[in-house]
Amino acid sequence: MSLPDAPEARAGARIVRVPEDRAGQRLDNFLLGQLKGVPKSLIYKIVRSGQVRVNKGRAKADRKLEAGDEVRVPPIRVAEQGETTPPPKGFLAAMEAAIVFEDARLLALNKPSGVASHGGSGISHGAIETLRALRPGQSLELVHRLDRDTSGLLVVAKKRSALTELQALMREDPSVKGQRIAKRYLALLVGRMPDGVMSVDAPLHVGLRQGGERHVQVNPAGKPSLSHFSVIERRGGHSFCEVRIETGRTHQIRVHAQHIGHAVAGDAKYGDEDVNRRLREQAGLKRMFLHASTLEFSLDDGRVPYLLNAPLPAELSAVLDALAG
């Protein structure tokens, strides 16, 4: 609810009252919904600088809002952040065609490799911004994220209740009565994985390199991380696998694969540059061979099951065909 007589409103700021269906939402995510197209980095900046107020007081980005809270939303000119044009028509059409499932609560996208989950850090149009441009007026929120170079299932909530329940599943929150979310990927691992099935139980720690780049490594001080690799078939001396992860750590599959000596093919960060070059020349692999293929979960305390699938992209199928020759 806007309060036009407030001094902040006359200066261009808005006072927004938190509706009941947004109770429990973090402040940063609430602001992302209010300031469409604004990069997340800018959201954090205006919160840290005190331009955002909750009930007239300063607040942190991770504050959980309550129904009726009054949030001061400062004026942000999105055009100054490079968001001067809507997504190109061709990109809009490609993202519309990439939707593999939709109902009243959820939308699932088979995200192409090279598309960021959300804008920011020099990226004007991520998946969520493009979907919002396709569905103006709808409330769309990312349930989770995929690395930019990973293709596959990206789930977007259309209702606050679905967002809350799915994020609890992602966090393995015990309040969701033992329900789990099953996440399966398809990956080409470099070399011949010695066993048909291998589990990797190795803690992962996220560090920052100079320039702010995230780099993850196996480290006893890290968070518990568990991945299960199963070979589907051997192709050209490499291992085409299904990977099931029980935790959702940053770069988990990529670092666990590197840890066992069989990096994900085409992985520029954790892989082997010479092997990647040979696969590019011999099999046409121009991207990382990692694809989020399946998500299985239930909503409404286990009463409504979902099984979402995203087919392997044509460019990755072509690599497998080339390796079989």
TrEMBL record:
Q: Single Gene Ontology BP term?
A: enzyme-directed rRNA pseudouridine synthesis
Reaction(s) catalysed by this chain's protein: a uridine in RNA = a pseudouridine in RNA; uridine(955/2504/2580) in 23S rRNA = pseudouridine(955/2504/2580) in 23S rRNA
Which Enzyme Commission numbers does its entry carry? 5.4.99.-
Ranges for the RNA-binding S4 domain? 25-84
Query: GO molecular function terms here?
Result: 23S rRNA pseudouridine(955/2504/2580) synthase activity; RNA binding
Record keywords: RNA-binding included?
yes
* CDD domains (alphabetical): PseudoU_synth_RluA_like, S4
What this protein is called in its record is: Pseudouridine synthase
